[in-house]
Amino acid sequence: MNPDPVDLICRKIRECRRIAITSHLRPDGDSVCASLALAILGERLSKKMSVVNKDNTPFPFCHFPGAGRIRIGQIDPAESDMVILLECADVSRSGQENLGDCYKINIDHHYSNFTYADINWINPRASAVGEMIFELGERLGVPIPPQAADYLYCAIVSDTGSFQFSNTTAKAFETCYKLASLGASPIKVSEMLYNNNLPEKIKLLGQVLSTLRMNGRGNIAAITMFKKNLSDLNLKEIDTEDITTLARSIKGVEMVLFFKEMEKDTFRVSLRSKGGANAALIAEHFGGGGHIHASGFTAYGSYEKLIVEIPETVERLLTTALPESPAS
What we know:
Diaminopimelate Epimerase, Chain A, domain 1; 2 domains; 38% helix; 6-stranded mixed sheet
């Protein structure tokens, strides 16, 4: 019988004095908030905790209380007894380059994971890695203070799309109920998540939605954000999930492709789906991955070529994999 990875992680956390936490490139609300909560829980055990990410913390999470403790850069192995990687399918997904000899713990709720660490805890049934960190806190017997409860509640709300995505489960609601009982404020979290938009963000929303393209069947929508859109509005980091949600709300749409220009001829394509359309399978076809209804990949080439060829390929894949897929 294989040992319980959560028990192993609890034991290792108690043994170590200095613990570093990192998450994936282009961190999201789940990974950011789960990292901050885990750091608080570790400090409750008198551990020296550090949170280090390769990429900057995105808006609006960069303005959350305590987000300033996240250091941007590389982990120094000499300063840590072990490293906990959140939502990283492999070490390269973290962008950390010095972890070869480090003791590593791998915590992830995506099924596409290479179980590369000394301890691997992979639970695709979890709604968010924040849900897993809550379970870890319970198993550690650490009292969860209100700030950590806020972070974990936010992690789950963020990653489930406010309980709209397919990873929304009864366990997610149960965990959020427990977190609210521990002092998490759903109203405060919603205010921080959704009511911090700048006027420029609303202008950006209009510009991106004006690029909307639909396929003939009306089940695939594509929208695009160019770097020029951001620079013209003097925006750097911006949360765009709500833009994708608006496109996803179009009647009959099964799949939204959100093209984000990263560099010349380089686009990050975020996929959001509903009904029986599997965004993860589509993303994996293009070398990416993620959830059934929320995934992504990187595409290279001219925009004029990509905006035609990728939706055509997606339509073919959907037709092949899901000939009777409902557009619910």
